[in-house]
Amino acid sequence: MSELTVGDLVAMRQLGCRTIAGSGGLDRPVVWAHSCELDDPWNWVATDELLMTTGMCIPSDEALQIEMIRRLHKAGIAGMAIGDDLKAPPLTDGMLDEANALDLPILSVSHSTPFSAIGRTVGVATQSEQISRIARLSRLYEVARSATLADSSLLDRLSTELGHPLHVVDVEFGTEVLGRRGRMPAETVRALRQRVGGKLDRLPARQAVTVGDELVATAFALSTHRKCMLVVDGPSDIDMDAFGLLHAQSLIGIEVERATRDRERDDASGALLFEQIVDGSLGSDAAQPRLEQSGLADREWVVIAFDSPHLRAARIYLGDSALPSLTCIVGEEGYLMTTADDMSAALDLLSGRIPHLGVSAPTSTIQRLPDSVRQARWALQAARADGSAVAEYSTASPLFLPRTLSEATFAARAVLGDLMDHDTANQSQLVETLDTFLTLDRSWTATAEKLMIHRQTLAYRLKRIETITGRSTKSSADISTFWMALIALRISRGGNQ
């Protein structure tokens, strides 16, 4: 219900009110009507209250009348209603001009209209509005209580109740947090994030969202740990009851916090399950029912590897899209396990947001998942090496794309076996020297400093490496073979890439 205004009182002919000045302020709201005859009524009438007087409180001097209008305006009153019973002094032109300038309504009330009639009219209107607000509040909380029992989401039900399509957007990651039937246009989400800009630490209480010159949505900050805003989708500015909106924000904020806690708990238990599968401490029989709880049972799986600092982002992108997955960190890499059917959707969500991704070959055997982790790690290394966004592990792999730990060992020994045996027999560091030399882009100075040896010693070691392996440290083809073999060696030893 809209608020009662001074203009509404004038429009009620039965009240006998007419405007004599300040008609520009007839849209001022009226929450109460109060009678006062003291000479300082501005101290006794509050904001949005209508002052009713027989005129005894009005001074006769023009300057004092002007000062009275200014003080009443400063107090924020809705207007002044003066009884037409000849008790008021003449209203000067200066007083009326000041009221017009400040848009402070001055009404003349018919002698036949008791002030109590105006007071009751305002009181009934205010009471009716409060009853309407309480009823709406009751419905909002009933919606929140019953949302968990219904097929529709809390946002869908609140959207229906409030008459506006509601969304919750994480403005840090650009995702919609609580599921509902329809999604916001991507350009609206982008526009909101651009509007918020660097204000993540202090989100604006209310933010208009425009695309071009068109208003497409209005956003309101939520009190949540995630940087979330309640977005009301629509092409016009929102004229929603502030009382209802405030409680809707509170309900939705509570739901976002609950969903966030549930997600964090599921992520932690899922990480433990994934880690136990990878390290072999959990057998397939024990893992199967827990995978079923995660929506991953009896499927083909893939593992996707990425740099570990992006774990939180990966969890948010996948979780907000309700894509079944398990995630964990092993060494310096983050890993996620999802179904082969959902692989494309997962890559669409992550690529472009996470710099490099490595994807394993599909497997339907739990015991092969540790190999899938190694494959994903290998593919991630390939993505880093050539700067690509996504590298998929090929099932038709050449020698230096091992599918299993045993293949990695074989690939490493095929090139470095004699060198490894020489190091073991002579307690030398030729493999370490080669690894350091290639890692430092074949810089003699940097390698010698890293290994704390003289350049002549480095030259001797490189010559021995070439003699033992039959490969040159100057040939591009041989350098590539050395490098891939060294990576295979790290994988076979469980090292990080």
TrEMBL record:
Q: What name does this protein carry?
A: CdaR family transcriptional regulator
Q: Which InterPro entries match?
A: CdaR-like_regulators, PucR_C-HTH_dom, PucR_C-HTH_sf, PucR_dom
Q: Where is the PucR C-terminal helix-turn-helix domain?
A: 430-488
Q: Signal sequence: where?
A: none
The organism's place on the tree of life at top rank:
Bacteria
Q: Which organism is it from?
A: Rhodococcus hoagii (Corynebacterium equii)
**Residue ranges of every copy of the Purine catabolism PurC-like domain listed in the record:** 10-122
